[in-house]
Design goal:
Order of helices and strands of chain A: HHHHHHHHHHHHHHHHHHHHHH
CATH superfamily of the largest domain in chain B: Periplasmic binding protein-like II
Helix content of chain A: over 70%
Distance between the termini of chain A: 31 Å
Number of domains of chain B: 2
CATH topology of the largest domain in chain A: MetI-like fold
Number of domains of chain A: 2
Distance between the termini of chain B: 63 Å
Radius of gyration of chain B: 21 Å
Oligomer: heterodimer
Structural class of chain A: mainly alpha
Helix content of chain B: 25-40%
Shape of chain A: globular
CATH superfamily of the largest domain in chain A: MetI-like
Structural class of chain B: alpha/beta
Shape of chain B: globular
Number of strands of chain B: 12
Largest interface: A-B, 54 and 58 residues
Largest sheet of chain B: 12 strands, mixed
Number of helices of chain B: 13
Order of helices and strands of chain B: HEHHEHEHEEHEHHEHEHEEHHEEH
CATH class of the largest domain in chain B: Alpha Beta
Amino acid sequence: MASRAQPLSGLDRTGAVFAALVTLAVLGPLAAVMARADWPLALGPADLAAIRFTLVQAALSAVLSVVLAIPVARALARRDFAGRRMLVTLMGAPFLLPVIVAVLGLLAVFGRAGWINAALAGIGLGRIDVYGLQGVVLAHVFLNLPLAVRLILQGWQDIPSERVRLATALGFSGADMRRHFERPLLRAVLPGAALLIFLICTTSFAVALILGGGPRATTVELAIYQAFRFDFDLGRAAALGLVQVAICFGAGALAFGAIRGRELGTGLDRPPLPWPGDGRGARAGDALAITLAALFLLLPLVAVAIAGLPALAGMPGLVWHAALRSVVLALASAGLAVALALPIALLVARLRRPGLVEGLAFLTIAVSPLVIGTGMFVLIRPWGDPVALALPVTGLVNALVALPFLLRALVPAAVAAEAGQGRLAESLGLRGLSRLRHAILPRLRRPLGFGAGLAAAFSMGDLGVITLFSTPGQGTLPLEMYRLMGAYRTDDAQGAAVLLMALTLAVFWVFDRGGRLDAVAR
Amino acid sequence: MKHTIIAAGLSVFAGAAFAQAPVLTVYTYDSFVSDWGPGPAIEEAFEATCGCDLQFVGAGDGAALLARVRLEGERSEADVVLGLDTNLTAAARDAGLFAPHGITPEGLTLPVAWEDGEFLPFDWGYFAFVHRADLDGVPGSFEELAASDLSIVIQDPRSSTPGLGLLMWVQAAYGADAGAIWEGLSDNIVTVTPGWSEAYGLFLEGEADMVLSYTTSPAYHLIAEEDAGFAAAGFDEGHYMQVEVAGMLAGTDQPELARDFLRFMLGEAFQNVIPTTNWMYPAALPAEALPDGFETLLTPARPILLSPEEAAAVRDEALATWQAALSR
């Protein structure tokens, strides 16, 4: 305790206040919806079926995503080649894309009229059917494999290169490496990664519906949508919202203990080479894993680009305005996410309570965006015009969605910075903001850049909150894309999709890259 | 910083000056107010005569619109809600938020009689399965469709008004046998989308032979894209109609203006905008006033429309039947 004998500083208090605000921003809307509901809250048999389907598809998606990510992460960790970094960035794209764009891209490849079926027909084979549970899982793996790869890759890169060199000197075989390094690291990383993806998949709505093939594929989120929009049954919506929170805590409890807080998004540095026990077989396997993953993740993006590029130049001016609005919104959202996350992360690092972060993080992922949006609407109405606040609320909600990823990235880095620099700073008499600026922040650049990039990307692609509050002349790019689709203008919509994809990747890349540029000492 | 404050001050001032003209707030569905929808032209035309400021607010689709008004209750800013359909009006009426319009509509060109004290129609259409004109073996009924191996994309009745329309169509045409029809259709259905846009997009991408849309959809391709390659399949059972309506809220602070707007809605300036922006039939415009190309469209021999009360009464059971038949 001696090293932090001083009482909680202003910064710490800010962190505590922000943490409370975030909890309020997530649970407050749920409470607001519950307050408007008729009691008791009741669930019907159809709701139970929806809960079952949600759990099954989310579990399958999570398990498949992490299992498939293992060979890919392993290959990326062990191989260095020209364009490796670019490939890692591009392969992250599906996670950042608005769902509807990703789905259209997937269908262009895997759909009934897609490339694969065209190829199969060309050689006289029957076609594959993407619609059904398999389609839902395929899409969720497509969307979340990048996240899984990134999380697991981090595990490999946490192995100190000195120890790898020692293993080489000791003549470790591939099997030795697996036993002594890879299995322990996977045991540490996999449960957390799987839990995160499981929770992301529990609030799936459009993917499950479009690719699920029918009412068999009803998720809890769709049931919430139905309760709000068609039945106007706020009680059922609130009950289902609570179910999501319960699923979150249940899954969290199951995976608890198996998880350790991991730093995300930092160090994709040069792999430690040579890898002990490396042979021709291992090299060929890694090449195969990287090639297959790249094809799976990039072909749908290529399909979106091919479909949309011809229309890009001729798009109505309105779309460009919407694009500008979306970029501004993304930047604001990134700023807000960083402003919220930094004090919380610093507080957690000083109190050494990573469990707090995980809880907060999982909560913001697991609560239905529709419940948050509607709840905020209910909360804001007595005070102001929700329509006028459409863009700020969209920015705020997406900052909240990005918060868990930011915290996961920031907390371990902040802990390390406190451990490494805290005492030095104290001996130099650095306090408060100057301590933060000189001792801590330089070590947080990378996770900050990564997290800000995520927040910006999420905000770019948001099509949830904005539709609740939309008004003419305020449309964001995804909303205009959707409006174009709704007005039969498919070509223009595809053009807008390409623009959206490019801008989303660009904002992420700028932040992520910005965090990696070597800090200039001030 | 100083500039922002000045700008904020100015905008407050400008807002105050602007507020001298009475404001009429109309909630509608999102695609109505988009720049490719009817909203902008209608706003301009109405503001030219009303001496007011007409403000459209978009709120998702038809069902979301109703949810929004119910969420806001009696304190809603809205004076008029435009874009509910007759499958939703019973619930809207029951919520007690709408006021009698007191207007006797004249010159309605709907294929059915219209009597409704709270809601007035502004456009309508027939649901139909749309396909490429060169499709072989176009079915002439739900039974033929179910027996064929044609693929279709439909919308979810729980999240989209066309999806709900199809549910009512099968229910009205087959009654107690609706479940059997849905079971027959289940192997034709490629997938069920959340809304019309996704379904139509999938159809255009070649994911299915036919899509649930409107008999007026081919008019878009014909008129806007000069592509005569789309058609709607005529079904022997008749075609269910979607009638889109507007009503004024009981809590409006501009009842006279709201009534003026509803009258304007049935006039030529509003009605002429509808065919080539909303791609529906205007509710009060004679056939000869429709744009060229509309005469090529399928005209069903038997229009079907459940009354709002009937639609509300059968909805839950029809939905359960649909869900059970397609969940097998």
